[in-house]
């Protein structure tokens, strides 16, 4: 297949909730596609993704460890590309139930991908606007990382693991390309140095979970606005209802809010943002006092699904240390 053909296929790809440029679903009566039309779009996009990434996917099938990041050893320093060791145990008794000490946010927006991977339009606007909302409304110390390579991303999260303390709240946001292998049900983030020829620079859900598990903060939320990020949230569904704030702060909480599952997503966006980011921003703007992550999720899910047949997901990451009864707290800054 020549480069021109690959670029044409790339235009069909679903990337973030703003999606790749070049492919727009046909118009639907009333603006809502029917089941058959949705299935046709899904088949087209699935075929396009598979063809575009076929060499990288074949490499993973031959050697699944090609994407793995090694674990850090005592010989490594802050510049090493490695995964910090996962934590053991829950919330230290000294901080259990006490108010949050610091709020730290890391927002990653990838958009200038090299051809034939299509570029994205909304991630830089999404992370800038969400960073402002987190800082002004919720009192977060915010770091924004744009066009991050695999090394940039791993080192940035590893730095959070070294800096955060048990009484802290950490928020991580990723907007960029993603992919799900049908046969293994393993999802991947594709950093800015990701390739269609090799998967060596992709990041697996397994390593994402390990990175989260190394952050000692009692409160930890990952929001992922990429295709197939729903697999991150499916490790454990969240039960209805939530314990009191005091009880939540006695537990380690590791939650994931994703922009969708595997369904086709809108390529239009709203006001320069992906549909998911736009509704997430609205939920932050309307926040008064304290809300648990499940409440924010329900608002975002309804808004997104009303705009497009796309279903955000919310769940706990037990493999990263989430404890029963845990929840993430969105706490508006006192005026």
List keywords for this structure.
3-stranded antiparallel beta sheet, Rossmann fold, alpha/beta, disordered N terminus, 7-stranded mixed beta sheet, 335 residues, 17% strand
Characterization of this structure:
With 335 residues, the protein is α/β, with parallel strands linked by helices. The chain has a single domain (3-331), classed as Rossmann fold, CATH 3.40.50. It contains 9 helices and 12 strands. Strand 1, helix 4 (123-138) and strand 2 (141-146) form a beta-alpha-beta unit. The longest helix has 18 residues, at 35-52. The protein starts with a helix and ends with a strand.
Please give a quick description of this structure.
The protein has 335 residues and is an alpha/beta fold. The chain has one domain: Rossmann fold (3-Layer(aba) Sandwich), CATH 3.40.50. The chain has nine helices and twelve strands.
